[in-house]
Amino acid sequence: MRDYSFDVDFLVHPLSSVLTRAGNTRVISSVSLSDTVPSHVVSGGWLTAEYSLLPASTSTRFKRERSGVSGRTAEIQRIIGRSLRMSVDMQAFSGYTMTVDCDVLDADGGTRTTSVNGGMLAVAIACKRMQERGIVEKSPLKSWIGAVSGGIIDGEIVIDLDYEHDSRAESDFNFVFAENGRIIEIQGTAEREPLDEKVFLELLAESRSCALQLIKKMKTVAGLE
Amino acid sequence: MRDYSFDVDFLVHPLSSVLTRAGNTRVISSVSLSDTVPSHVVSGGWLTAEYSLLPASTSTRFKRERSGVSGRTAEIQRIIGRSLRMSVDMQAFSGYTMTVDCDVLDADGGTRTTSVNGGMLAVAIACKRMQERGIVEKSPLKSWIGAVSGGIIDGEIVIDLDYEHDSRAESDFNFVFAENGRIIEIQGTAEREPLDEKVFLELLAESRSCALQLIKKMKTVAGLE
Amino acid sequence: MRDYSFDVDFLVHPLSSVLTRAGNTRVISSVSLSDTVPSHVVSGGWLTAEYSLLPASTSTRFKRERSGVSGRTAEIQRIIGRSLRMSVDMQAFSGYTMTVDCDVLDADGGTRTTSVNGGMLAVAIACKRMQERGIVEKSPLKSWIGAVSGGIIDGEIVIDLDYEHDSRAESDFNFVFAENGRIIEIQGTAEREPLDEKVFLELLAESRSCALQLIKKMKTVAGLE
Amino acid sequence: MRDYSFDVDFLVHPLSSVLTRAGNTRVISSVSLSDTVPSHVVSGGWLTAEYSLLPASTSTRFKRERSGVSGRTAEIQRIIGRSLRMSVDMQAFSGYTMTVDCDVLDADGGTRTTSVNGGMLAVAIACKRMQERGIVEKSPLKSWIGAVSGGIIDGEIVIDLDYEHDSRAESDFNFVFAENGRIIEIQGTAEREPLDEKVFLELLAESRSCALQLIKKMKTVAGLE
Amino acid sequence: MRDYSFDVDFLVHPLSSVLTRAGNTRVISSVSLSDTVPSHVVSGGWLTAEYSLLPASTSTRFKRERSGVSGRTAEIQRIIGRSLRMSVDMQAFSGYTMTVDCDVLDADGGTRTTSVNGGMLAVAIACKRMQERGIVEKSPLKSWIGAVSGGIIDGEIVIDLDYEHDSRAESDFNFVFAENGRIIEIQGTAEREPLDEKVFLELLAESRSCALQLIKKMKTVAGLE
Amino acid sequence: MRDYSFDVDFLVHPLSSVLTRAGNTRVISSVSLSDTVPSHVVSGGWLTAEYSLLPASTSTRFKRERSGVSGRTAEIQRIIGRSLRMSVDMQAFSGYTMTVDCDVLDADGGTRTTSVNGGMLAVAIACKRMQERGIVEKSPLKSWIGAVSGGIIDGEIVIDLDYEHDSRAESDFNFVFAENGRIIEIQGTAEREPLDEKVFLELLAESRSCALQLIKKMKTVAGLE
Question: Could you tell me the pTM of the whole model?
Answer without folding.
Answer: 0.95
